[in-house]
Structure formats: C-alpha cells, structure tokens
Amino acid sequence: MNSYDNPVLERLPKHLQRYVVEQNYDRYSALDQAIWRYVMRQNYAYLKDIAYYPYIPGLTKAGLTIERIPNLQSMNDSLKKIGWGAVTVDGFIPPAAFMEFQAHCVLVIAADIRQIEHITYTPAPDIIHESSGHAPIIGEPEYAAYLQHFGEVGSKAMSSGKDFELYEAIRALSIVKEREDATEEEVQAATDRFDAISSNMGEPSEMALLSRLHWWTVEYGLIGTVKDHKIYGAGLLSSIGESASCMQPDVKKLPYDIDTLQFSYDITKPQPQLFVTPDFKHAYEVLDEFSKTMAFRVGGQEAMEKAIDSSNTCTVELSSGLQVSGVFTSMFLGEELIAIKTTGPTALAYKNLELKGHGKHYHKDGFSSPIGLLIGKRLPLEQCRAEDLEGLGLIEGMPGSLYFKSGILVSGKVRSFLFNEDGLLLLVSFEECTVVHEPTSQVLFQPEWGIYDMAVGSSVKSVYAGAADKFAFDPDINISEIKTEKQNWTDEQKDLHEIYGQIRELREGQGKERALSVLVQELLEGFPNDWLAMVELYELAIHEGQIELEDSLRFILKEKARKNPDLEKLISDGIRLAQTQPINLELMYQ
User: Which residues in 460-499 are b (16+ Cβ under 10 Å) and which e?
Assistant: First the structure.
C-alpha cells in the first residue's frame, strides 16, 4: 500500500490496507476533470454562503483545488499536517471497515468519479463526494474529534449476518446505476434485490443504528437551529443538486437527538428530511448516549447473543480483563451466562495486546471456557493472587479441580498460571484435563485434545466487533467480489475526450493554434448532445473577448436547455458562473 509518506497511513493495520487500491490518476479523462471542475465551481459559488464556515478555507487545508481532481499525494501532504490521511478504495466498503479507517484518522475516498449523467447527485460514492465533501471540514478541530470518536465507537459496533447481505445489495445497486451501459432490466433486478433484503432485516443491529446517526450527521448533517442552519454533511456538500434542494421548505428540518435513530435512509435517493445539531458537542453527546446501550458498554448475555448473530470476529472481555477474540458460535445459557465458545482461529489478549503463545495459530481450532463463580467460594477467581490458589487446591504440577455454580467441572493437572501486572489471575492452564457440564453430562473438553487453557472471569464485561489486538490477529475480511466496472471507452467517446483535453489546454494558456469556433463546430457536428464542453467554451469566449462567439454559444446553450428540461438548471448555472466568475479560481483559496 502506498503510504504517501504519511505516518498516519503507515500505522494502518494490515486488514484495512487490503481495502486500499491505487488511485491510478491517469484513469481520469479530460471529461472527468471537467466534471470535477464544474461541480467545484458550483460548490464555491453556492456553498460559500450556506456551508458551515470552515468549508471554504478547509479546501486548501485538505489539498484540494477547483481546477483538477485531487491527487492522493497532494491530499496527504496537506492532511498529515493536521494528523489525518487519505486512501482510495473501490466504491463502498463495509460500514465496520469504514468506521475503523475513521478511528485511525484516515479518510476513505472512492477512486472513481461520477458520470456526467449523475453530475448533480451520484448513487455511488465517488472522489467528488469523499474528497470535496469530507476532507474540507476536517480542519475544524471539534468536528475532527467527533469524526474520530465516531470511528472508535463504530469500530466496536456489532453487525448482524444480514448487514453484510444488505451492504452487498447496496454496493451492487450503486455500481449498476453508475454504469453507463447498464440496461433497465439490470437496474431493476439490482433494485428488486436491494428492496427484498432491506425489507426483511428484522431488528436493526448496533451497526445499522449507528449508521443512521452517521448518515444524519457526517453525511447529511445541518448545524445551527431548525430555522437558521448551515450545511456540514459531506453528502450535501458534494451534491450540487441536493445542496440547493435540501434548503427548501419541503425538506423537513428536525432537531438532532437520540430519536433520530428511528429514521432509516435510502442511500440511492435524495433525503426527505434532515436533522440539525446546534453544535458538534451536542452531536458528540447523542453518540455517547447511544453508545451506553451498545454491547461493548453493557456486556452480559445479550451482548454475547449479538456476537453469535454477527458470525464475524468479535472480542469478549471478561471481568478479569482477559480478552477472547474469535467467531463465537454457541454458549450455555441458564438464568445467566455460564460459558463462552468460539470456532476457528482464536486469540487471547490483555489490554489489547495479544498474550504471548496465545495467538490464533495456537488456538486454531477454537476456544471455550466456563464463566461464573465457584461453588462454596466467595472470592471470584479473577480476584485471586498466587497465594490464594493453594487454598483452592490449585498447585502447579499437581491435580486440581474447579467446580462452578453453573455445574461445569474442570479437572486436570495444573500446568501453569498467568497473572496481570497487579498479580491477579488471568488464565489457568491444565494438562490431562476433562471439562464436563454435569447437569447434562455434556463433555466440553477431553484430555486427548491437548492443553486446556481456561480463561478467568466471573462475567462478560464487554463484547465488541473485531479483534482486541488487530495488528497481531490480522483478521480475515470480507472484500466484496462485486467490483466497480472500469469503463472501456468507445472511439467516439475518446474523440469527445480529446476535445475536452484541447479545451483544457486552451484554458491553461496552451494550444492556441486551435480556434474556439472550430471546437464549437466539431461539437455541434459530432456530439450534439454535449453541454458541458459548450459551457467551458462559453467561458473561454468571454475570457478572450470574442463577443460574437459568446453570443452564439449563449444562444446554443439556451436552446439546449429549452429542449432538455433536465439540463436547464445545469446549463443556466454554467452560464451564470461564466458571466460572473473568472476561469481560474485558484487565488480565491489563498
């Protein structure tokens, strides 16, 4: 992975690095550059009045310009000065991974850019949304702290098995909608699959609920009051269509609070309502209010059930502080939790550092351990020191047994003990060990299986997604098999891109041998449906004082707008900016 000489990126764990793709800057055509420039010019003209105040100076802090699609190197050169970084990925990534990147102060940027047909609003994440939407406001310290804290909380959120199905459906739908050659049948099929899954999700998981808070703040948030507010959500800041329409009265504005959790969202459509937070401190407080209900804060049986339902790597932290990371598949339940069990590679850790000799290669076939108090013993095992163990009949090299109130009996030869830095017991290892749940006669461990490492803990203190020591565990990740399809340009499209390239050269003071009128004629004859190149030529005609060509182009553009109502606003806004703003706005960022 290219770290762009940014220490923030160099610290990313390996499993996150697997989501990163090369930007491949040459992928962007001259038309792509024109799309970026048009959107950014519109954003500058409009958002300077309605965006939250740090947005405009924040563009410079994030290494962005109006003229060109950002290069990840220049973005990282700027972002690392404020302790952040940026990487490119292939479209949507799972919410858990997105949150974890955020926790590491890394912006995730979709490498692709929207088609001109979706210039006002894209159904898929793209470089306009991710960079011009998220990056500029990172320079605001309170917001950056909120964003990182959200990532930290979100990276612990429990997902359900259905969440990944929904993610795959959303990803597939966004990709097919953005495909230039997608048929109506393909779009409908992807829509039907998304609708079928989204309508059968059951109770929303922690991640689903947390994603709602993220959506209504980080992506689509307003700040101020219900009657007087500004935009700070990246989805609005990067949409020249919705940034304007969202301020209209028909889009309801509601106070942002914990009840916002009741509002789901559709990522492929404009939003019918938005939420207003008075400040980022309030948004932070709402997030903390919700986090108090999450498994990592609550623990216990309900939290364990969420871990099992997720079917992914989770961590269970016991009352002793010992952490067990793996895929939890079953447990014994009576009136209380009496055991934990994983299947497949499992690791043990303490204070987020893997215990030596207890990585996932050692516990490759899973792990199980009783949880609870011992019969006839008032002192919980996790409060025992070395001097207390002899009284429990636990002596290294000697037979010993532990009988739990749950009915689980552990019997074997004591091999070793592991204590924490305060001398309190964390782990007991047995040889020739048998573990039986006596009320049901179910055998949990047999001597021929090897060493039995028994976790110490009378209760489950915390349960959260992912491994405790992510750097040592290096968990397997679900990378979607559905990839963003790379465009194969037709000869006709390549010819159009060539014209856009010549226009860019003229705007940058190069290629003066080509007359503007010649390019206009080529567009009229070969690409009668194009409008963006005409807008750029109109800017150049004004800039060069070619009044006759300027009048002719204005007439052509207005005729296009009259015949194509869907383009009327885009063309009118382009004409207005050409008349009121200089071609090169770079100095306006200084």
Answer: bbbbbbbbbbbebbbbebeebeeebeebeeeeeeeebbeb
Radius of gyration of the chain, Cα coordinates, nearest whole angstrom = 29
DSSP assignments along 495-538, one per residue: HHHHHHHHHHHHHTT--TTS-HHHHHHHHHHH-TT--HHHHHHH
Selection from 48, 46, 214, 70 nearest residue 128 by Cα:
70
One-letter amino acid for residue 416 of the chain: S
Nearest residue to 89 (alpha-carbon basis) of 26, 24, 170, 158: 24
Instruction: Please list the helix, strand and coil fractions of the chain in percent, rounded to the nearest 5, in that order.
Output: 45, 20, 35
**Which pTM value belongs to this model?**
0.84
How far apart (Å, rounded) are the C-alpha atoms in residues 359 and 471? 11
Q: State how far the Cα of 137 lies from the Cα of 57, in Å rounded to an integer.
A: 9
Instruction: Please provide the distance, in angstroms rounded to a whole number, between the alpha carbons at the two ends of the chain.
Output: 32
Nearest to 304 by CA among 354, 345, 341: 341
> Interior CA angle at 295 toward 291 and 301, to 5°?
150
Whether the Cβ atoms of residue 79 and residue 63 lie closer than 8 Å to each other: yes
Closest CA to 383 of 299, 300, 453, 457: 457
Q: Which residues pair with 20 in a beta bridge?
A: 89
Whole-number percent of the chain with pLDDT over 90: 61
Residue 325: both structure tokens together? 């990371």
Is residue 290 helix, strand or coil?
Answer: helix
Distance, in Å, from the CA atom of 258 to the CA atom of 255, rounded to the nearest integer, reads 10
* CA atoms of 425 and 421, how far apart (whole Å): 10
pLDDT digits (tens, 9 = 90+) for 312-337: 899 999 999 999 999 998 776 656 78
Q: Evaluate whether 327 touches 313 at the Cβ level (below 8 Å).
A: yes
| Digit-coded pLDDT (tens) for 111-141 | 889 888 888 876 677 898 888 888 888 888 9
Looking at residue 86, what is its pLDDT?
A: 95
Low-confidence ranges of the chain (pLDDT < 70): 122-123, 178, 180, 268, 332-335, 475-487, 511-514, 582-590
108-112 CB contacts, 8 Å cutoff, 24+ apart: 108/19, 109/72, 109/134, 111/21, 111/22, 111/23, 111/24, 111/27, 112/27, 112/178, 112/484
Evaluated on CA atoms 227, 233, 237, 243, the torsion sign reads: negative
Residues whose CB falls within 8 Å of the CB of residue 111, separated by 6 or more in sequence, listed in order: 21, 22, 23, 24, 27, 88, 89, 90, 127
